[in-house]
Amino acid sequence: MASEFQRNKLQAMFDAFDADGNGYLEEGDFVALADRWARLPRVEPGSELAGRVEDVLLGWWGQLTAATGTAREGRIDLNGILSVVDRLPAMSEQVTATADTIFDAVDENGDGRISRAEHQRLVDTWHGQGVSTADVFDRLDRDGDGYLGRAEFAVLWTQFWVSDDPREPGNLLCGPLPGTAG
Q: Can you tell me the distance from the alpha carbon of 104 to that of 97, in angstroms, rounded to the nearest whole number?
């Protein structure tokens, strides 16, 4: 069962994904999310990466409805999302594929690293608006080289979606946690 920490952490993401603000996630919300990601410079229409981004994001809609048994209703509430969080450790292949696709979409110059500016675009794209990230990147960049490599990113991505430990830096991957200054 998802903890209160996980609930608070994922509430902001749920709200950002809920494009129409009706308190539920629906397929249209995932289409809107995929459309936001399609506007990133490296996600060119018709490209292999654009197809992957759409497949991954819309694939999660299918995963969520199947896992929560809500395909018929066509909508999922926050509790439904949180019930899937408990299953993510057993879905490492899907989580890693998502991390790789998001990494490739955000790595604007294709150098195999995510810079501070690219990380800011990731946060802004997830939230659908500009989000102040303060010192978040410095806390994510554990080796202090000014970049997040693919392996670093995959660990942080998994921590964001799965971690129940507020001390793990990946909890900040998508921006400051609600109620914190960053």
A: 11
> Which domain range does residue 138 map to?
4-169
Task: Indicate the DSSP class of residue 91.
Answer: G
Q: What is the DSSP string of 112-164?
A: SEE-HHHHHHHHHHHHTS----TTHHHHH-TT-SSSEEHHHHHHHHHHHHH--
71-101, pLDDT tens digit by residue? 778 999 998 888 888 788 887 788 888 999 9
**pLDDT, mean of residues 18-40:** 93
- φ, ψ of residue 148 to 5 degrees: the values are -110, 120
On whether residue 125 sits in a domain, the answer given is: yes
Phi and psi, residue 25, nearest 5°: -100, 135
| Prediction pTM value | 0.90
Residue recorded with tokens 């408990």: 86
